[in-house]
Structure formats: structure tokens, C-alpha cells
UniProtKB/TrEMBL annotation:
Keywords: Glycoprotein, Integrin, Membrane. It is found in: Membrane. GO terms for molecular function: integrin binding. Residues 5-76 form the Integrin alpha second immunoglobulin-like domain. One of its GO terms (cellular component) is external side of plasma membrane. It is a single-pass type I membrane protein. Gene3D superfamilies: ntegrin, alpha v. Chain A, domain 3 (2.60.40.1510). One of its GO terms (biological process) is cell-matrix adhesion. The keyword Membrane applies. The keyword Cytoplasm does not apply. This is Integrin, alpha 10.
Length: 78
């Protein structure tokens, strides 16, 4: 994206297609020239997601702790 204040909506889905996953986490880092207005799991997701912001350009999320079950998925909107 170039120029003034352009907006982009991104949808990303994390899915467990194999066996149960323990202590699953998602790390998102992005360029300093981007401003992330929001980063959230989709509202109707049954998967527990907790996110932290260790720095302005990094988001760390625990997904389904303690267990991200087989077949579970969560969609993030950013």
C-alpha cells in the first residue's frame, strides 16, 4: 500500500488438521511503517484466544490453551 492512509482488511485462519496440539501460539510481526488498527479473533469462534502486545509491531497469541483440538480453527481479522 502506498500513499496516504490506505486501509487493508486481512482475514487469516489457523486450523489444526492433525492431532491435538498443546500450548499452541501464534506470533505476528509487521513492518514499522504499518499501523495495525485491530487484531482480533472472529467473534463466533469457540476456540479460546488470548493475545498480548510485547511491542508496537508484534502480537503474540495463545490459541486454545491448554489444547488446540483436532479439527479446531480460529479466524483472525486484522
Amino acid at each position: 500500500v502506498r500513499g496516504g492512509r490506505q486501509k487493508v482488511l486481512v482475514s487469516a485462519t489457523l486450523e489444526n488438521r492433525k492431532e491435538n496440539a498443546y500450548n499452541t501460539s501464534l506470533s505476528l510481526s509487521f513492518s514499522r511503517n504499518l499501523h495495525l488498527a485491530s487484531f482480533m479473533p472472529q467473534r463466533d469462534s469457540p476456540v479460546k484466544v488470548e493475545c498480548t502486545t510485547p511491542s508496537p509491531h508484534i502480537r503474540l497469541c495463545s490459541v486454545g490453551h491448554p489444547v488446540f483440538r483436532t479439527g479446531a480453527k480460529v479466524t483472525f481479522l486484522l
